[in-house]
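Contributing new complexes? Match this layout with phenylalanine.
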Amino acid sequence: MNETLERWSSRRAFILAVTGAAVGLGNIWRFPYMTGENGGAAFLLLYVVFVVLLGLPVMIAEILIGRAGRRSPMRSLGHLARQAGASPHWRWLGLFGVITVFFILSFYSVVSGWSIEYLVESVNGDFAGMAPQAVGANFNAFLADPLRMTFNHTLFMLLTMSVVAAGISGGLEKLNNLLMPLLYLLLIVLAGYATTTDGFGTAMAWLFTPDLAALSVSVMLNAMGHAFFTLAVGACALMAYGAYMPDDQSLPRAVGAVAVLDVAVALLSGIAIFSVVFSQGLDPGEGPGLMFVTLPIAFAELPGGSLWLGVFFLLLLLATWTSSINLAEPMVATLQGWGLKRGRAAACVGVAVWAVGLLSVFSFSSMAEVHWLGDMNFFDLVTTVPTDLFLPIGGLLIAIFAAWVMPRDTAELALGTGPAGFRSWQRLVRFVSIPLVVGVLVSGIW
Ligand code: PHE
Ligand code: NA
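Output block (do not edit by hand):
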């Protein structure tokens, strides 16, 4: 009946896996540059509001479906739909999730490759004594070198798919749990150092004094997409993990702490990065390179900077590794559901995602001006449309399924809070989350 990976051995294992999926590039790389591109505090405020009103309730909905279905996402959805007497077509939502994670993983691997490059360069001492302007030039030189980028992207895909193929991500999650506190500590140290820089005051004002006039539909769309992305919600990836959740655990309690941690990591990273931006007179709207040009500058000011920069990128790599394993899971689980062996399924997924990832690699050199939609090159396209459109649409359908379609007693049992908790969650999803996603999506597409 349950054709995929091992079952989580304990409640802690489940929480570790969800934390591993959530904390990643979204917090440390994507959050700061999206905040920078969307004008600062207004984006941050919306993002937090969306995490609370959408991200968290829909995250619960998604895991709940997996937990009640105990199969791959497609099969869980089909099975529960049948049980509810609803259309079996609900299972296509699982395939929509597969498409979403496919494109997300294709760029996620490329950017994680940038971390590998920076890990090596830091350990080499390349950044020691490098002038701030030179750090930016160094990053651009790397982007212009598709061969080096392909090498790192390949390495990262191999790392990810070998763990997925072996179905041993549990070990990695335990390692992560052991080492992530050090990443958080480094971020706290960086944020502490940031308070001593000239740019700190400006950064704080810029991050925390929302100018409501800066709120626009596109800022709303971006903030909503990011709230889903950072919590790993909307692509049936957590649904695949929910299938292995033990029976005797309250779902909201398990994931509430993950969301708090996820936001905290993003905020620390934002404070550290924007203090450097304003101290050095850099452009907050610099884009996807923001982290890679600010952090070497920040670490250079600390004693033993090169070493700690290396440690930082190593830990970031671990964090992205567990996220990419989660991104791969719905694809591999679906292929397994179609009868492929796990190893073979992982190989197919790995090769296909790797190949599409090359389009992102070349988006920084020969294909920079190849526009796929509007003025977006491939990298621009895959870093926005799957996140800002597919995740919210997937999340919306997940929410509708869990709060309106699923048989109430099945859903209540899978939530694990008892009837009163279930009623509050269901009301929140029905009357707040669903209308909110619809409202933002409709005004966005308008
Ligand atoms: N949440 C991950 C991050 O913040 C990215 C992710 C998105 C993982 C969707 C799984 C599914 O980096
Ligand atoms: Na995240």
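Reviewers usually confirm one structural detail per submission. For this one: Residues 176 and 318 are 7 Å apart (CA to CA).
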